[in-house]
C-alpha cells in the first residue's frame, strides 16, 4: 500500500460538500490546465481520507475521453482504496457536465459497486470553475 502523500489534506472527504472540494482542488491544478480532456481519480481509505494524490487514468482529445472501468479502478484497487473521487477537466472552460459525463458517472458508480469501491463524487474542473456532481445532486 502506498504511503500517504505528506502534502495531502488530512481532513476526510466526508466533512461536507464545500470543505472537501476546497481541500481537493489544489491537487487538481495540473488537470485544470491541460489542453485536452484528462481523467483522474483521488483514492480514499475506509474513513474517506485521501490516501494518494491524483492518479491519472486517461487522456483524451479536445472534447471527449475514452476509458474503460478497468483503467479507472486499477489504481484504486492497487492502493486498496475503499472509495474514489473521479475528476476530469473541460478545456473549453465550461464546467457544466455533459450528457456523456453524466452517463459515464452512472456507469462508473455501477462498476464501483461490483468492485466494492464507492464512487463518492465526480468533479469537473476548468481553469476558473468546477462542478461537483455530489454537490449539484447529480449522483
Textual characterization of the structure:
The protein is α+β, with helices and mostly antiparallel strands. The chain has four helices and five strands. The chain has helices spanning 17-24, 29-32, 69-78, 99-115, and strands at residues 38-44, 55-59, 83-89, 118-125, 130-132. A five-stranded mixed sheet has the order 2-1-3-4-5. The longest helix has 17 residues, at 99-115. It starts with 16 loop residues before the first helix and ends in a 7-residue tail after the last strand. The model has no long low-confidence stretch (mean pLDDT 83).
Main beta sheet: 5 strands, mixed
Determine and state the CATH class: Alpha Beta
How far apart, in Å, are the first and last alpha carbons? 29 Å
CATH topology: Cytidine Deaminase, domain 2
- Elements, N to C (H/E): HHEEHEHEE
CATH superfamily: Cytidine Deaminase, domain 2
Number of helices: 4
Poorly predicted spans: none
Total beta strands: 5
**Secondary-structure content class:** alpha+beta
Shape: globular
Mean pLDDT: 83
Strand order of the largest sheet: 2-1-3-4-5
What Rg is obtained from the alpha carbons, in whole angstroms? 14 Å
As a percent range, the share of helical residues equals 25-40%
Q: Domains counted in the coordinates: how many?
A: 1
> Can you name the CATH architecture?
3-Layer(aba) Sandwich
Strand content: 15-25%
